[in-house]
Amino acid sequence: MSSVPPIRREVVVEGDTDVAFAVFTKGIGRWWPLGELGVFHDGTVAFADGRIVETSARGEEAVWGTVTDWEPPSRIAFTWHPGAPETRASQVEVRFAPAGTGTLVTLVHRGWEVFADPRAAREEYDQGWPGVLSGFGRTVAETAAGAATEAGQDTWVALLHTPAVEPGEGVFGDERFPQHVAFLQRMQIAGYLVAAGTFGDASGAGMTILRLPAPHGVEEARRLAESDESVVGGLFEVRVRPWDVRLTG
Fold first, then answer.
1. Is 0.85 surpassed by the pTM of this model?
2. Is residue 247, in this structure, part of any structural domain at all?
3. Hey, which residues does 235 pair with through a beta bridge?
4. pLDDT per position as a tens digit, 203-213
């Protein structure tokens, strides 16, 4: 048994488990960064016939691994040896669990004893998985938003604003704060603003709820949120969370 511990990475993605599982498997070619982390650095990659196969633009193939467990939409496991023979395969397991309106994705990567330098291999993957999962999360959100748009549904989002200034410096007296007020006024005039306010237990932090009519999606909401001059100027950091509204008054 390897003395090098597994990598465990968790990320909450903005889509249900069915969407998250489908994007991870059927949609891997849309989010995997082949240009950086591929054998051929072009073409595509896909789950096919129980294997993960990269195909170059010239038709060459490289097998990355073999599926060992397939339990949609909650779990998948596979061997992992991109660019290496099957005898040097480590193991990856990915679980998908509901988390509010999103999905908690947990990836565990183990089996480092197959590498010549197990600790170096683990360190390299430990640095690589976060970026890969970030791209996966964006694709899940885009897919979920696209499905809502096709269904003619409005897009609801929560903009979570966190002060980027040092604690104690204050937000409301900052010369950049009027730019945030101007952003909210623009959203109100456009008919997108539902509500905005601060959290009573977090100094300067707050939330804005926007409702964008179809066919606008999450990417448009993100563009609007990032165009807020108070965000551009560094007063706030903003996180855009799609909101699956099931009931209104």
1. no
2. no
3. none
4. 889 999 999 98
